[in-house]
Specification:
mainly alpha; 73 residues; 0% strand; 2 helices
């Protein structure tokens, strides 16, 4: 009977180690996923800003581009 109790008490440390290492792995994966999403959002914001800047023109620039196109035909 004592040997069974001793054996069970020796395994407590291995179970704790397994649970701890598993939780560290899960936390690491969650942090990496979060960082990836933040990076994706930042890249999308940069792209939207650049697209807005590319499409932002005043009437004079638009008329000049239209006239160049019409003259080249």
């Amino acid at each position: 009977m004592k040997s069974k109790i001793k054996k069970f008490s020796n395994e407590k440390g291995s179970v704790t180690l397994f649970v701890t290492s598993t939780m560290l792995l899960v936390i690491t994966l969650l942090i990496l996923m979060y960082a990836g999403q933040i990076n994706k959002i930042n890249n999308q914001k940069k792209q939207l800003t650049q697209i807005e800047a590319n499409y932002k023109v005043d009437d004079g620039e638009m008329d000049a581009a239209y006239n160049r196109l019409v003259e080249n035909k």
